[in-house]
Amino acid sequence: MADFPLKPGSTIGILGGGQLGRMMALAAARLGFRTVILADHEESCAAQVASQTIVGPYEDRFALKQLAGAADVVTYEFENVPAVAVKILAELGVPTAPSAHALAVAQDRVAEKTFLNTAGVATVDFEPIHSAAEIGPALDRLGAPALLKTRREGYDGKGQTWVDNHAEAAAALGRIGGKPAILEAAADFVRELSVIAARGRDGEVACYPLGENHHEGGILRRTSAPAKISASAAAQAETVAARILTALDYVGVMGVELFELADGRLLVNEIAPRVHNSGHWTLDGCEVDQFEQHIRAVAGWPLGPTTALARVEMTNLIGDEADHWKNLAGEQEARVWLYGKGAARPGRKMGHVNRLRPLD
Ligand code: AMP
After folding, report:
1. What is 11-96's CATH number, 3.40.50.20, 3.90.780.10, 1.10.1740.110, 1.10.10.10?
2. 186 lines ligand 1 (CB under 6 A)
């Protein structure tokens, strides 16, 4: 059994080989840790910077056994880790953070919103949907239009569709593949914000200043941080984040996506039990970035300061936008992060750029 705090030289296991795993591995290396990645394909971008990589399906008992044997603690870089993988890791006796429970809650939009409401955190009103026949009555209660989303495995705006009226119910469910769903009341938000929060093994919670997020085609395009918000909105976000992390007995960094309503109230849209794209600004804008913070938390180290040192506009480099690396590298206020991915397919996140300005 691992002894926390982990000593430098210990090994942190990461399930998933994408850019979030890559940036976690870089942060871990800076603190003197080794990393072992379990990725489901050979060409993972996290493998390029990890100490060791195991390639295999996430449910593969043999691969998980190798991972558990090599790691002192295992964390995740994506939330759709198969539940069986987490169960096998637990059976093998390796500590995991965040917990299987936190992952299970975040993997199902109905379980997530039910948990949030029970914890005293406001969300949009919603109804679980098991068949097209349930959509009409739910629409009557929630108001039209409403947003139909798959309960599981939706990301970057995929697996969701607006429903305008009863007649459209069956077609709408068809558009999201007829899967178990949730119907959400439309949030009449003025802005989308997020708070990146961390909780250590000792229960301490630390929040970063909020980011203001802009999406295009369902994909995060830009985050501006610290967001210009009132002190009361900032305090509200911190209270919400602390409530969520504490109720889950969470260890690690979490992204909490928020809708800001015209009257200043914040609703939680969703929680991501991992480091988050809207927290990439912290890499160049904060004393300790979200990746180091996550590694500190899972390793049982004290959390670091979350103070902003600069105003940052983070822009994702999507598809062939990363081909402009030379121009970006020439911009004096820009910090360029490239993920080492091969083909620049449309919609694929290839990197991001943080443009820094002094805090006003
Ligand atoms: P999600 O996959 O839940 O993060 O949703 C992706 C995007 O869809 C969000 O960032 C919002 O822009 C929009 N969205 C999600 N849920 C709602 C809602 N209930 N009402 C209005 N817009 C929403």
Report:
1. 3.40.50.20
2. yes
